[in-house]
Amino acid sequence: MTQTTLPPVEKTQPVSAPGGTTSDRAKSERKLGWLLAGPALAVMLLVTAYPIAQAVYDSLFDFRLTDPDNRSFTGLSNYAVILSDWLWWRSLLVTGFITLVTVAVELVLGFALAMVMAKALSTIRPVLRAAILIPYAVITVVSAFAWQFAFDIQTGFVNTWFGWVPGISGDTDWFGGTWTSLLVICLAEIWKTTPFISLLLLAGLAQVPEVLQEAAKVDGASWWQRMRKVTLPNMKAAIMVALLFRTLDAFRVFDSIFIMTGGANATESVSFLAYRQTISRLEIGLGSAVSVLLFLAVVFIAMSFIKGFKVDLSQSRGEG
Amino acid sequence: MPDVSKVGSDRVQTGRAGPFHSRRWRRALSGAAAAGLLSSALAACGSDEGGVPTLTWYTNPDSGGQAEIAARCTEAADGQYAIETAVLPREASQQREQLIRRLAANDASIDIMSLDPPFIPEFAEAGFLAPVPSDVAERVTEDVVESAVEGSTWNDELVAVPFWANTQLLWYRESVVEQAGLDMSQPVTWDQIVEAAQAADVQVGVQGIRAEALTVWFNALIESAGGSIIEENSTDPSEIELGLTSEAGIRAAEVMRMIGTSGTVGPALSTANEDSTATAFEGPNGGFNVNYPFVYPRALSAVEAGTMDASVPEDYGWAIYPRVDADTPAAPPYGGINLGVGAFSQYPELAYEATECITSTENQAYYFVTNGNPASDTAVYDDPEVLEQFPMAPTIRDSLELAAPRPQTPYYSEVSGGIQRVYHPPSSVEPEQTPEAAAELINAVLRKEQLL
């Protein structure tokens, strides 16, 4: 990072941290900030903190929805059941795999799309943006059905269209094996959420000062050098925020798996496991424990992004 | 609400000045908002104050037959009650999930429910079903096929009203059995079917998808072999004894493996459900298909729509479900819908009265003819209109008399889920290991020592 340090970046830092003691103006600004954010915070606490607390509480009980009279406190035994079960670890691995693959591909694709949107002629830019955003506007369940129908062995067109590709024939049962199922699930996820990442990256691209690009051009830097030394370092905050949001999102993958395989062929994700224990088995205690573990995993991911990669969420606001 | 008043006051202040004016506006707006909220809340509360009591019937999706029956019974009730229907999700498991969550919250709006039989013990055991009055119980089980009565019973007591009863038949192509020289006037075994299919190079349609359909198939195999998934039942989950590792259980696994690896089940056995196997049966490779009677009207309507040649359904033949062993009668799958009355309903007596109307011979015949759902009332099978539309009706009735319900337990979801997990895909079933593994998993899940 220090190699590519640029004057404007250095400059923004002192600006974002108010220097010296807090003045009256800063105080009143802070007060206004609380007033503005307070109601939202209260609503957030009500709709997120309360259910989380309830789930943590429920996870300590042996509690079946159809048998509430026999509810009993069992301490951490639900967690012991989950953590000693191979199914949990397998689901965690599958979830991790889907997260890693989709986020990595989406980042590259999303960046390319962001570049296209940024560089496109201003006349076609609105149309282009709308076109790129369409998949993101599609409901996940609908997109999952669309992809399932496309790859279906009886009604799908993929086997017919891509019959010339080695390994694909009219008899390829995409949802009959683990890897082929995961491939379609990942494709559907990538198709659907790449626009989100590209939109965040587009905002990042817009932040890169044009003067720096011009200066680099004058210095004789090639396109690739400008990309590596100027564009990317200046977009670091935006990239990290996009990655963080998408990773958290991808880790909770549920809809596509639910529609396409129903958890068959070892494609269960952690969210799917929580669904099956809580909703299908009606084991509220066990299911809550799975949900709490999922929550902890998400918190862990968020913390490691913020601490490990030093992501400053405020930087993505684009001051400077 | 505070948001509304704020928006209002802002708008006024930017438009015209004056604190008095803005306060009045604010008050008026927030008052209006409060009144709006209150009236909508009130509207949600009491709907049938006075007048005719409205019974809500939660139905599974169909071709509109249940809504029509509700209208007919409302008319027949002559102002005593009115039935309105509310449609549940498509999948039986999701119907159960929705109903159970609402009943667990003592939902009084559920008067009548269309229930899939395997879930009835769970509802009964949880106290979600209003007790069936003894006179009603007597009337609604008269001349009703045995399997439907069994499917409405829990702990030797009738807890639901038999409505329509479904069963799977063995569908075959006349041309194929002729070519293979298979005599369909006699009961046939799975071995014979697979051999005939191999000889004629056609497909055998079975449901190998990891879903309820797999349990249905497996249950038919184990019951046909003379065993049961649950040998010793109990309301205490840790005392349920499974019959998966019994001789019949192992035999069922052998047959499943034999069919799965025979090369006659098509390329997508592990995702094959009732619909996809019916589609395959309609195609050029269709030979045999174990499936519900909807296969027939489905083909006829395709002919009517011009998407299928009339010669295809003409080639259809039907017989009783295949046997596992030549000398033991088959135990075909039993399904359908029975009616439960919600324990928290405000009008349980009226609701039971309504179920008697819904399940009348007339209405069952109407439902069979228009929606293709076979009746549980044996009298319907003598109806000339039914016989004309469904020439296989006598076979359906015979099949229903032989049919075996899936395991009746309040923990059905765990048992079925465990079977689906271990016996899927059917081609990988190992008769020496799979039954053992399934029994171990289901027992551990029932003891709440493992995830599902």
UniProtKB/TrEMBL annotation, chain A:
Pfam families linked to this entry: BPD_transp_1
Transmembrane stretches, start-end: 32-53, 92-118, 130-151, 174-191, 284-306
Residue stretches of biased makeup (Polar residues): 13-23
Primary site of residence: membrane
Region (Disordered): 1-26
ABC transmembrane type-1 domain segment(s): 92-307
Keyword Iron-sulfur: no
Membrane topology: Multi-pass membrane protein
InterPro entries in alphabetical order: MetI-like, MetI-like_sf
Gene Ontology CC annotation, any one: plasma membrane
GO biological process: transmembrane transport
Superkingdom per UniProt: Bacteria
Compartments, as annotated in UniProt: Cell membrane
Keyword Transmembrane helix tagged: yes
Keyword annotations: Cell membrane, Membrane, Transmembrane, Transmembrane helix, Transport
Family stated for the protein in its record: Belongs to the binding-protein-dependent transport system permease family.
Protein name in the entry: ABC transporter permease
